[in-house]
Amino acid sequence: MANIILFISTVLIWGTTWIAIAMQVGPVPVLVSVFYRFATAAVLFLIVLIVMGKLKIPALKNQPFILAQAFCLFSLNFICFYNAASYVPSGLISVIFSLATIYNAINARLFFGDAITGRTLVAAALGASGLVLLFGPDIIIHYNVDTWKGVSLSALGTLFFSLGNMVSRRNSAAGITPATANAWGMTYGAIILLVLIAVTGTPVVAPPDTRYLLAMLYLAAIGSVVGFTTYLMLVARIGSSRAAYATVLFPVVALSLSTLYEGYQWTLLGGIGLLLTLAGNVVIFAKQPAPRKTVAA
Question: For the range 284-290, what are the long-range contacts, defined as Cβ-Cβ under 8 Å and sequence gap of 24 or more?
Fold first, then answer.
């Protein structure tokens, strides 16, 4: 039951964060928006852990891995996603992000020696075919440069997210709880973003309106503190590949919101592409038939 609750919570939370990200795109530079999000999330997380008496400082030997998690999950990946939201609808970004299931299967093989099965290859083929149908007309036929940028940034952000999953898996195995890893990871992520803002000379723009501020608070408190905790708890309990199965349902929620609030226009090819992409994720988790028992004569 606990795994089901964590799964549903993750789907609902992260299915809605994409539209909130789109609401932050505008007058505030991306680096600053992502900084606002994770600085706020880090403060909230640390306060909660202090009040609960559960704030722990990871051992020195684990600090590099907390830092790596910060780079992959709480800074670089969202820089990609926020920039992508300038070029393509937020719902479509979530479709590309749903391929984290395939990214995780491949990276788990590279970093932990997990087997890559035939179903992973089939899933990858279905996912790639779906993306071609979804984005092909703009990328190939009409050659829309903005779509190219949006797809590339979304794919890169998903790669960073998957690498962060691998680091999180390592941290969990080392006995670091998701809450501890997230709290310090978000803190380090905010520092990384602040350094990038200073190095690049990015102007720090204040939140322009209530809409932006509410979106930022939702992303910080619900999307980051709650969402990442429920997701990484799933990673710790059922593994990175199966936890990423939650991303299969993100696009359903995200595209519904994108249709309502961003005016996303559905096409027949787009609908088929979405189904193929989701099918690619489902294939990875299809239940394998039990091997037949041979009876001795």
Answer: 284/101, 284/102, 284/105, 284/119, 284/120, 284/123, 284/241, 284/245, 285/101, 285/242, 285/245, 286/119
Residues 214-218: contacts with CB under 8 Å, at least 24 apart:
215/20, 215/21, 215/23, 215/24, 216/24, 216/33, 216/36, 216/37, 216/40, 217/40, 218/17, 218/20
Distance between CA atoms of residues 295 and 15, nearest Å = 49
Q: Read off the pLDDT of residues 98-154 as tens digits, 9 standing for 90 and up.
A: 778 788 888 999 999 888 777 777 877 887 788 778 777 766 666 678 888 999 999
Rounded to whole angstroms, the Cα distance separating 222 from 227 reads 6
Residue with tokens 């035939």: 118
Residues sharing a CB contact under 8 Å with residue 118, sequence separation 6 or more, in sequence order: none
Structure tokens at 195: 């350094």
Give 218's contacts (C-beta < 8 A, 6+ positions apart). Answer: 17, 20
Nearest-angstrom CA–CA distance, 102 and 227: 21
Q: What is the pTM of this model?
A: 0.82
Spatial distance between the Cα atoms of 289 and 270, rounded to a whole number of angstroms: 32
